[in-house]
Amino acid sequence: MIKMPIKTIVVLLVSLFISSTLTACSDDKPQKTTKKEQIYFDHSHGSEVSNLKKHTFEHKFAKQCVEREVRNSVNKENDRKRFTKPCLCIATRIMRNLTAVEAEKFLVEKKSTQSLKMSFDEAAYFCLQNKKTPKAKKIFGR
């Protein structure tokens, strides 16, 4: 017979007891509450960003995006024209959910917050997915 330490047996029994009591306490029926008992979540997300700040953010962000893409380019003028539209799309998409803190950090402190970087990734994915991909060449009529 296999010998098990007493501590292991106690731990198994206690965890079995706890797991069985937790699953036995659940109820599928919704609880009825009165209006006084209802909890309302009313929290502010910070002050709204003014339209002027959003417009300024949009153009500065788009300009920075284009410059970053053109930095290592061989043909800068052609690439600048090519990247202008996607970068403006990204800036416009980020601008929708822009908070006052993010706008101030970007415009005044010239820093990018982590949430701004995440918004950039989401916007870049969205804007670049709308781009048409070139069609493959047909070989032998196929």
- Tell me about the biggest sheet? none
Helix content: 55-70%
CA gyration radius, whole angstroms: 28 Å
Q: What is the tally of beta strands?
A: 0
Number of helices, counting only DSSP H or I runs of 4 residues or more: 5
Low-confidence stretches: 41-46
N-to-C span: 71 Å
- The overall pLDDT average reads 76
Oligomer: single chain
* Overall shape: elongated
Beta-sheet strand percentage? under 5%
Q: Which structural class best describes the helix and strand composition?
A: mainly alpha
The helix/strand series, from N terminus to C terminus, equals HHHHH
Your description of this structure?
- The protein starts with 5 loop residues before the first helix and ends in a 13-residue tail after the last helix.
- The chain is built from five helices and no strands.
- The radius of gyration is 28 Å and the shape is elongated.
- It has 142 residues and is mainly α.
- The model is unreliable at 41-46 (pLDDT under 50).
- The longest helix is centred in the middle third of the chain and has 21 residues, at 76-96.
Summarize the structure.
The chain has 142 residues and is mostly helical. It has helices at 6-24, 51-70, 76-96, 100-107, 114-129. Helix content is 59%, strand content 0%.
List the SSEs and their pairings:
Layout: H1 6-24, H2 51-70, H3 76-96, H4 100-107, H5 114-129
